[in-house]
Structures are given as structure tokens and as C-alpha cells.
Amino acid sequence: MTITSVSMTLVVPMYNEERRVGDCALPLINFVENWSSDSRLIFVDDGSSDATVEKLNVIIDESGSKRVSVLRRPHEGKGSALRSGLLRADTELAGFCDLDLATPLGELQRLFATSYSHDALVIGSRSHADAQLLRRESKKRELAGRAFNRFVQMLLCPGIRDTQCGAKVAPSRIWHRILLDSQENGFAWDVEVIAAALWAGIRVLEMGVRWSHDERSKVNVSRDGVSMVLAVMKLKSRQLTRGRSRVVAAGP
Ligand SMILES: Nc1nc2c(ncn2[C@@H]2O[C@H](COP(=O)(O)OP(=O)(O)O)[C@@H](O)[C@H]2O)c(=O)[nH]1
Ligand SMILES: [Mg+2]
Q1: What is the 3-state secondary structure (H, E, C) of the chain?
Q2: Distance between CA 214 and CA 136 in Å, rounded?
Q3: I need a surface site. Which of 49, 100, 206, 229 has the fewest CB within 10 A?
Q4: Cβ of 224 less than 6 Å from ligand 1
């Protein structure tokens, strides 16, 4: 059996991507076309104010694919976009990747295969010994990423060395379970879902991937870094509150 005979949903978040969508949409469509016939590709547009959706619709029409949908939503953030896409998955497996294909599609396929064979949330990692960084981020971004990870490991996700790589896969059943309680709309959403999985006793596997940074990133280290740190603190306080109610519910 090959992994592509399994059904999957691939979610791709987009925000003002008119410059990149032309290069990346067709490889994504072709990738999903190669999987079982009930597989789906969902582009979630997070209220782009440029021509992202118009350009994407032309590419989808030209491809002739019947597996692709575009979900348009008001601008709320990457986490909110991913949650709404993944909650629509009714296939065996579901996952997401960044539009710029920073994690190549071959690597994504490995994540799908491992998730299926291990019934786990499988997360791509740039900090695992097996990772291969083809084009690295700037020193400043790498340092900020490392500091953020130390903080996240201390508070919520011990042992997870990279929560932020934009490629994660799980059986849809697992996504539905860990997204039940999800509230984080921004870039800290990845931390929220990993922490929720660990909390629920779901297996989380970190897999080194080949990865390539695209300079046209929209993530701003200073602006987004501060809001991510604040979001992680909020997640921790929610977890502490839930921990207390768990103890009370268990009773003496
Ligand atoms: N829904 C949503 N997606 C976003 C937002 N910002 C970035 N993205 C998407 O998230 C993915 C990664 O963004 P990118 O700018 O490459 O950031 P990087 O993580 O620094 O490489 C791409 O698919 C973007 O379109 C946002 O505010 N909302
Ligand atoms: Mg990128």
C-alpha cells in the first residue's frame, strides 16, 4: 500500500500572497491530485486585500481540478485560518503547509506517511538532527526563534525543539479533538495545538525536514515576536486554570 491511496485534506493559509501564489498553487494542486480521489486541497484566504484570490482562481480553473476549494474569511490571523480549514477535514488524514513551500512537498508526504503509520501528530522540524536547512533564515530570525523555543519548552511543550515550522499532519480525528478548545488566532496557534496534544496524551512526533527560507516572509520578528510571547503566556495561564478544574473534577 502506498500512502497516497489514503484520503487526505491539505490546508494552505494565505494572506496577501499575489506575488507568490503564481509559483506555488499549481505544484500544490498537482500534489493533491496524486492522492486518493476524495482528497481535498483547501486554500484559506485570510482576508487578503490584494489580488491573491483572483490569481488563484485563474490557476484552479486552468488546472481543471475538482478537488480544490478556496475559503474566504475576514482577516483574523494564520491560526484562525488553519483552524477553520482543518475543522472541515473529513478525510483520514489532514495537514497544512505554507504557500511558499518552505517545506518541500516530498517532505510533507513523509509527514503524512509517518502520521498514518504512527497515528500521531507529526510536526516538521528545522531543529531536529535530521533536518536539512537549504536556505537559512537571517541570524536575527534564527536567534529569536531559538529564544522563543526555549520559552515555549519551559512553559508548554517540553522536548519539542521547533513548534513553528509550517508543516504539520495528523489523522483528522486527532485534529478535531485538539481543535475543540482552540482559541489562538495568530502565529502562536502552533504552540497551542502541540500543547493541547501533549496535554491530551496524543503522540507528537517531531521529524527533521528539508527546509528552505523564502525572503518574502510576512512575519516580523519584533512585532509578531512580542504578540507570540504574550499569546504563549495566555495559553499557559489557560492551561493552569484547566489543570485546577481537572483536579477539582477528580475530587478528593
Ligand atoms: N491566514 C494567514 N496566513 C498568513 C498570515 N501571514 C502569513 N500567512 C501565511 O502563512 C504562511 C507562511 O508565511 P510566511 O510569510 O512565508 O512566513 P514565514 O513563516 O516567516 O516563512 C504563508 O502561507 C502565508 O500566506 C496571516 O496573517 N494570516
Ligand atoms: Mg515562508
Answers
A1: CCHHHCCEEEEEEECCCCCCHHHHHHHHHHHHHCCCCCCEEEEEECCCCCCHHHHHHHHHHHHCCCCEEEEECCCCCHHHHHHHHHCCCCCCEEEEECCCCCCCHHHHHHHHHHHHHHCCEEEEECCCCCCEEEECCCHHHHHHHHHHHHHHHHHCCCCCCCCCCCEEEEEHHHHHHHHCCCCCCCCCHHHHHHHHHHHCCCCEEEEECEEECCCCCCCCHHHHHHHHHHHHHHHHHHHHHHHHHHHHHHCC
A2: 9
A3: 49
A4: no
Specify the CATH number of the domain 3-250: 3.90.550.10
The one-letter amino acid at 74: P
Q: For 70-126, what is each residue's pLDDT tens digit?
A: 999 999 999 999 999 999 999 999 999 999 999 999 999 999 999 999 999 999 999
Q: Is 77 in the pocket of ligand 1 (CB under 6 A)?
A: yes
Q: Which of 219, 220, 223, 224 to mutate to test the pocket of ligand 1 (most atoms within 8 A of CB)?
A: 219
In the predicted structure, residue 251 carries a pLDDT above the cut 70: no
Query: Where along the chain do its domains lie?
Result: 3-250
Confidence of residue 208 (pLDDT cuts 50, 70, 90): very high
Query: How many Cα atoms sit within 13 Å of 187 on the Cβ side?
Result: 22
